[in-house]
Amino acid sequence: MVINELSPHPLAKTKKRRVGRGIGSGMGKTSTRGQKGAGARSGAGLRTGFEGGQMPLMRRLPKRGFTNIFSKEYAIVNVGALNEFKANSKIDAAILLEKGIISKVGEYGIKILGDGELNVALKVTANAWTKEAEKKIQKAGGEIKKC
């Protein structure tokens, strides 16, 4: 018999700690709670990040920027990415997902941006678009409409 052949491994299963069962248990008297203080009291729940009265880390660090609670999350598609489609085909969120141009549809849908050139006439359905994107789609002979 070799030690690595023992099953289960001798250290894999530790016994449950029985606290408050006298000095002889090795965890008697204060029952692993230390001496005095909030942690020794029953019902003591310290909030997350509490550092014993020291200024907490989250208050010591400088704050930067802000979160715009009114921002709208769109899946962004540039006009140049639409060149891989055949002329006069209909483009919507499902087709863009299938082709891998977008990885997921945003909370507010799809927004078409005007970066790149469009060489084919397409019928694009989107939730939002820029004026530049609209110009380029119409210039190529396509049309854009809101879904």
Strand element count: 6
Q: Give the termini separation.
A: 72 Å
CATH second-level architecture of one domain:
Ribosomal Protein L15, Chain: K, domain 2
Q: Count of helices? A: 3
Biggest pleated sheet: 3 strands, parallel
Computed Rg = 32 Å
Which stretches are poorly predicted, pLDDT < 50 over at least 5 residues? none
Strand order of the largest sheet: 1-3-5
CATH topology of one domain: Ribosomal Protein L15, Chain: K, domain 2
Share of residues in helices: 10-25%
Shape assignment: elongated
Question: Would you list the SSEs in sequence order as H and E?
Answer: HEEHEEEHE
Would you state the CATH class of one domain? Alpha Beta
Percent of residues in beta strands: 5-15%
Q: Whole-number average pLDDT?
A: 91
Structural class: alpha/beta
In short:
The chain is built from three helices and six strands.
Report on this model:
The chain has 147 residues and is of the alpha/beta class. It has a domain at 75-146: Ribosomal Protein L15, Chain: K, domain 2. 14% of the residues lie in helices and 14% in strands. The longest helix is centred in the C-terminal third of the chain and has 9 residues, at 131-139.
SSE blueprint and pairings:
Blueprint: H1 57-60, E1 75-78, E2 90-91, H2 93-99, E3 110-113, E4 123-126, E5 128-129, H3 131-139, E6 143-146
Parallel strand pairs: 1-3, 2-4, 3-5, 4-6
